Amino acid sequence: MRLYHYFLLIFCCCASRSFAQDTIPNKVAFMIDSVPLTVIQEDDQSVPMNDIHTYRRITDKDSINNVFKVIGPDTLIFIFTKLYMQKPDSLRRIPSLSALKFRGNKYYRANDTTAYTGSFIETYLNGAKRFTGTIENGKISGYASLFYPDGTLKFSGYYRNNQQDGVLEEYFPNGALKRRGEMSGGKMNGLWREWYSSGNLKEVQQFIMGNTLYTTGTGDFYIAFDKAKTYIENKRYADALGELNYCLRIDKNLDYVYMTQGTVFYLQNKFAKAIAAYTKAIELEPLESSFYINRATATMRLIEENKESLGKLKNLDALKKSICDDYRKATELGERTIPEGSEMRMYCE
Description:
This protein has a domain at 253-348: Tetratricopeptide repeat domain (Serine Threonine Protein Phosphatase 5, Tetratricopeptide repeat). It contains ten helices and 18 strands. It has helices at 61-68, 82-86, 89-92, 219-233, 237-250, 255-267, 271-284, 289-305, 316-332, 343-348, and strands at residues 6-8, 28-32, 35-36, 46-48, 52-58, 75-81, 101-103, 106-108, 118-123, 129-136, 139-140, 142-147, 153-160, 163-171, 177-184, 187-195, 201-208, 211-213. It is globular. The relative contact order is 0.08.
């Protein structure tokens, strides 16, 4: 079964280079909806073919150099998405953050000396809105919203001077509230509540300018979890697992503890145990895309680790199918990352 039919951009040689350089020696560059593609978002590396309205390939060097005003690439590919072509001119004129110039901690239109004031709309590569808000005197200020690729609200909050400042709310792909709290100068502050997608309360935490305030009955848990993270950073994986097991004895219904446990097992090359831990995290929160990505990655590593004796692996076909199923589920939940190479296509075609 073919899972993806994408116009892949991850193979673009110059996707992560700036068009502002004096020379662009790479072979191919992209302009999507009139904006040069200089940096590919980590979770947005492709354009589905059925989302493309116009595709144009230019190889004439004079035309390419005229676009970039410098020595350009060998090939320039123009893509206009269907969603972009459906927009009225008033919306097309609203800049994206990537189209603005950021200098001195302020946003400017190209060639303007006055800091930009007005709206911005950041989009996914397929033209769907991704991040919207306003800029005042060059700085993101006021209400802003982040969206999943299908248009469902993912995040809403307030900004001041380019930092989150005020009430922040985050949502699951099904629209259920994920967490709510107060930001102050870009740091979590005050009381924060987090829920599962089922609506059940996951936990309540108190913060003082980004630092957790430990309270009676929860302090031991968070102290142990912080120790586990420190042990992971120092590659003391056995000690990290000890702290995580202690956390689970206090509360066995927190998905991120199992997620972290799975990561430790993965780092120890104990892929079967990692898969089991990620599976437990998924059982607690089935709408978190990263859990599926991690489980699929651990499953691929399990198969790779046993490639010399695949016959010893039980349910090999089921394992291969689960990789494709997990990537498909993650995509349904808004995950846009396409694994490099052909591993995913090998399991999903």
